[in-house]
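A note from the maintainers: we've had questions about how concatenated examples are separated. There is no special marker in the raw files; a new sequence line simply starts the next protein. For clarity in this README we add a label.
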Amino acid sequence: MPWSGADIDVVVNVAPNTVNATRVFDFENPVPNQRNTLTIEYDTGGILQGYLRFNRYGNWQSTGGQLEADGNDTSNTTRYGGEILTDIEARFTFAENYIVAVGGENIFDVEADEEGNGPLQFLGVRQALTSPFGFNGGFWYLRANANF
């Protein structure tokens, strides 16, 4: 499986007290270590084309930007679970120049885990702002194209 990550070894030429252990933690950890995509495409060679896509995001962590007084404490870290999102699209071609597509992204309306940062919760944030797949839920669409 693919693995992604970021490691910061040295921080140089910055103003004092701006980049500390908490900030480095947030640079290194909000991206999941694993991200996988499986796409199944279908094409009749004529009128119908489409796809079904599964997007898997691994776990991730964040302090939510909560900087501690000494700047070197990551004890306020929130760990968020991974998710699988599903996208689908069907395209219909008419008279070789017209295409109508209907589809959806995140069709099962998967939401990120609840925000772990207390102040953000107080301000009304429901899902993790640092979610790698967003926090807006499902999206459905109808698209028409004309090629001349």
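[label: protein 2]
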Amino acid sequence: MSNDNTMTFHGRVGTKVELREGGVPWVLFRVASTPSYFDAATRTWRDLETIWISVKAWRSLAQNAAESLEVGDPIVVIGKVRTEKWTTQDGQPRESTVLEANLIGHDLTWGVTKLQRVDRQPPAAARNDGTVAALAELEGESVETPAA
């Protein structure tokens, strides 16, 4: 039995999916989901508060996501829940929950996609993947970088 927290999240891509190179290709982007319910009293659909989550993917999944996803696309993500921690330039500790993706796909409830297979060479091992700086950037903050 595994101690990892696996989660399925569906929503719409909320930020640009940019491929980052830090030895191993990776992406970090935000996905938004707005649950809704039918209000029988008014006979209308009502939206609840939007939920945002950061999604991180590695290697070929990252490369394929960067080439396939655009802001606004409806997607489904399955992965493991992780907490990333960092310190801002003014010394404030921060943390963010990240869904480290094992699978990303378009939500076909909203349309169709066609799979195009790609052949890529395996990447080298990562040294510093830059996750902390990318999370801070998504949160609109600057981050203190440790000395090498």
